[in-house]
Each structure stands twice: as C-alpha cells, then as structure tokens.
Amino acid sequence: MNYELLLREHSLKATPQRVGILSLMQTSGHLDVEELFTEIKKQFSTISLATLYKNINAMMEKGLLTEIKIPNQKSKYEIAKAPHIHLLCQECNEFIDLKLDIGCLVDEAAKESHYRLKESSIVLSGVCEKCQAK
Amino acid sequence: MNYELLLREHSLKATPQRVGILSLMQTSGHLDVEELFTEIKKQFSTISLATLYKNINAMMEKGLLTEIKIPNQKSKYEIAKAPHIHLLCQECNEFIDLKLDIGCLVDEAAKESHYRLKESSIVLSGVCEKCQAK
DNA sequence: TTACTAGAAGATAATTATTATCCTTTAAAC
DNA sequence: GTTTAAAGGATAATAATTATCTTCTAGTAA
Question: Tell me, what DSSP letter sits at residue A31?
Fold first, then answer.
C-alpha cells in the first residue's frame, strides 16, 4: 500500500509520521491512542502525543481512519474500510472484524423509522472460541 | 415506577438524588453527563458533579443504567432495558430507540466467529424523516 | 535545484473529563 | 431513637484531549 499517495489524495501532507501511523494501523488492526503512541515511538522516538492526536483527527476528518467506540473500553482506531461489524471478547479482549451483510438490518430499521441511514456502528460482545474452551 | 424500591432491590440506598436521576432518565430518555447535571441541579441545586458521576457509575455497575457510546458524540445514558438499537440523526441530533429483532444478526455473527455473544451495541446514523423534508 | 509557503512537528500550557479524598450527613436496620 | 455503612458535597488530583507557539519540512513552481 502506498500511503504517501493515499495521504496526498486526501489533501494531507505525506509526512513520515503519518505514513508510520497508517502502516502501524494496517499491521495491528485496532489500536487505542496509548497503544498507538507506544508503537509509533519505536519508529519516531521524539514524536509528540499532540502530533499523534492531531494526525488521528486529521485522518479521521479526511475519512482515512475510523474511530470505534466500544462499551467499557477505550476507543480504538482502524483504517477506514467497507462497513463491517466488530466482536469483542470480554475475557481476553480480543477484538476482531467480521464481514457480515447488515443490509437487512439497516433496511428493516429504515423501514420502521423512516430514517435515511448512512453509517453503522456495531459492536457485539461475548466470549471468543478460545476463552470458551478454558 | 417506584424508584426507591428499584434501587433497594439493587442494593443501592434510595437517596433523593438517585431517585431524581432515574426519573429524569425515564422522562428524557437519553442524556449525557452535562445535560443530566444541568437538569438534576434544577431539583437539587447543591448536588455535586462528583455525586452525579458516582451515581451513574454505581447504577451502571448494578445494571440499572446503560452507557451508550456514539460516534462523534458524547456518551449518553439510559435506563437499562431489553436489547434494542439506536438511531442518530446527523442533522438535528435526534436520538431514538428502535425495537428491532437482532437475533438473526447475532446468530449469524456467532456462527461465523464461534463467539458466544452476550451484548450488543448498535448505533445507526443518518437523517430522520423531518430533516429529510427540509 | 533552489526558494517559497502552507501546513506539520514538537514542546508545553491549557482545558476538559473523570476519579479520588476527606469530612459531614443520612438511609436503613435493629 | 441509636447505630453504622454508605452517600453527599467540596475540592484536589489525575487522565484525556486540545490549543498555542515556534521551528521545520513537504510540496510547488520558478
């Protein structure tokens, strides 16, 4: 993935810090601010927390990153992608994406409410397979 | 609704402040901390913000209140009730409950992931009927 | 390539949100 | 009524986020 290009396409300067943040998000999937700061400091030891916040916000405004708000957890961030849902294991805190067609749910909700629906934020919580085995 | 009884049943002392918070939540539906503080001060002019926070947390621990985390908004609270989904109008900020059977979504997710699912947090955002008409 | 400029980085202060502490008061049980 | 654990209120402390300001650099165009 060419993050320099991606950033420029979204009218953001392609700084090394931003590229680092994006590639971290790509490999790690879901990180909160603190985790992201810990990781990014390994590449840019002098990076400021303010820079991290500013970049997260800038990239969210441009639609490159998405914030995921999770019950009883800190917000996590992910690279924006096609709509999907999230699963959280309440025991080991595993947090995964699940591609699932939510069209029927959204249609039903739109029909009942007469809302024109555009975005969805779905987090289901429970116990993952491994933790069930314990 | 007898909030004194409800509180005692959940091993919480039935203080006037708590009863006030619950009845406010009942009438208003969804409030954030700031809104709740503004409202509750009309009944208890000297109530401390710390008291409000402590009570919200105590009532959440006992399962009387639920926190709803919403993209791009402050968390709101509601009286705990049967699972349902939330709709947010991105224009007028209307925020409503919708009773909708999500069993099939949850079943599907459980089947795909092998999670044993227990909780759901679903917020759909878009434009309400009134704002569409504008 | 060099020079220019808007925007970004980094350091830090300021603000906001939330929690902890401590002392006083009160709900609930006897 | 008395007793006591728990709650209220005031405030301090902490955590999370944003604002400010100066220096630096990516991107642009001569």
Answer: B
Q: Tell me, what's the pLDDT at A15?
A: 98
Q: How far lies A34's CA from each of A39, A62, A73, A75, in Å?
A: 9, 22, 12, 10
Chain A interface includes B125 (CB < 8 A): yes
User: Shortest CA–C1' contact from A53: which nucleotide?
Assistant: D17
- Put simply, the chain B residues between 89 and 108 with a CB less than 8 A from any chain A CB are 89-90, 96, 98, 100, 102, 104-106, 108
- Residue span of the structural domain in which A129 resides: 85-133
In angstroms, what CA-CA distances link A53 with A59, A74, A118?
10, 14, 26
- Domain check: are B71 and B97 in the same one? no
Q: Nucleotides on strand C with an atom closer than 7 A to protein CB?
A: 7-13, 17-21, 26-29
Reported ipTM exceeds the 0.85 cut: yes
The verdict on B64 and B128 lying in the same domain is no
Do B59 and B13 lie in a common domain?
Answer: yes
- Check residue A25 and give its pLDDT: 98
Q: How many domains does chain A have?
A: 2
- Low-confidence stretches of chain A (pLDDT < 50) are none
CATH code of the domain containing B98: 3.30.1490.190
